[in-house]
Amino acid sequence: MNESRFSSVYVARDAALVERHLMEASWDDLKLFLIVAETGSLSAAAARTGVSAPTVGRRMLALERTMNRLLFERSRRGYELAKDGEILLARVKDMQKISAEITDWHGGAFRDPVIELAGDSWLSSFFACHANSLSKGPGDIRIGVTDFHDLHQLIHRDRVVLLTTTPPTTGNYAILPSVLMRFAAYKHVMLADSVNAPWISLGKEASRLPSDRWVYEHFDRDIYSWTNRPQLVLQLITSGQGRGVLPCFVGDVDERLMREGTLLEDLTVRLYVVVNDDDRRRPEVRLMMNRVSDLLSEHAPLFAGEGKA
Questions:
Q1: Alpha-carbon span 269 to 267, nearest angstrom
Q2: What are the residues whose beta carbons fall under 8 Å from the beta carbon of 126, sequence distance 6 or more?
Q3: What angle do CA 50, 55, 59 make, to 5 degrees?
Q4: Which of 28, 31, 56 is nearest to 41 (CA)?
Q5: Whole-structure pTM over 0.70, yes or no?
């Protein structure tokens, strides 16, 4: 084997040994090694890191033992890299670059603040349909949309903006009154000539609000279809199965539907934007409260049963 082949073999073997010992070394010690290599002295490394010079020296000695390599030539002039130290320095710089890329990649997913938008099934659907008005995308506020009913849990959750018809009367909340919400009975347009269409309702066990209970409280014997989810009430109505009660902001925008009769004024309610009072000082929470309030104001006629926004 000629001399060049011997050199290639030894270089490959040395690189493999360095890689193996890199796996064993602490990343904190490798970062400290990088600083010593760049500054050329223990005292300068200590000044940059806040770690005492004797401690830096001990950790570099321990790193050399772990690597089983002489990394520095020590002299009165300071710490100069030995040949193996130069090899290690190149590897550590590569690792530092990869580490920075991973940090940037990971941080990108969580850099923007998060707000949870919560409401009942209809209101959370409204949030989802108008998400572009509430979040401008990367660099703004990330949003989660939740079908949420239990007000008692709200005080224990951070960064929640709740839209509700029943604001809490006790507890640590900030409450902003908003628009009126009205309801009406709707049916498919193909039932326009039908005056005795069967009724569709939420089941009693799924009903939480007066609007959920209205059909079975007034037309219990005429209910032909029922379900446990509000969105399924809408689907049953649009299938032509019968008539049912919907919020006007839901029923009036569906071209397949028409109102039957007048507004059900006894179901009229006001909406409230609610946040944990400790949260409202956060800039992203205040901003989201304003955006939700502005969005509702823009659609106030639709919520009030006066037509599309």
A1: 6
A2: 119, 163, 249
A3: 115
A4: 56
A5: no
**Residue 106: its pLDDT value, please?**
61
Residue 118 gets which letter from DSSP?
A: E
Give kind and range of the element (H or E) at residue 251.
helix 248-251
269 touches 165 (CB < 8 A): yes
Q: What is the pLDDT of residues 74-126, one digit of tens each?
A: 988 889 999 999 999 999 999 888 887 776 666 555 578 889 999 999 999 99
* Residue for token pair 């950790």: 59
Rounded (to 5) percent helix, strand, coil in the chain: 50, 20, 25
Q: Are 264 and 181 in contact (CB under 8 A)?
A: no
* Integer Cα distance of 84 and 70 in angstroms: 6
pLDDT tens across 12-22, in order? 455 555 555 55
Alpha carbons 48 and 35: distance in angstroms, whole number = 8
H helix runs in 50-203, sequence order: 53-67, 83-110, 121-129, 131-134
pLDDT value at residue 119: 92
Owner of token pair 């493999």: 16
CA distance 119 to 235: 20
Structure tokens belonging to residue 88: 């290690």
Collapsing DSSP to helix, strand or coil, 152 comes out as helix
Distances (CA, A) of 11 to 1, 16, 34, 66, 182: 15, 9, 22, 20, 79
Q: Which of 163, 201, 203 is nearest to 185 (CA)?
A: 201
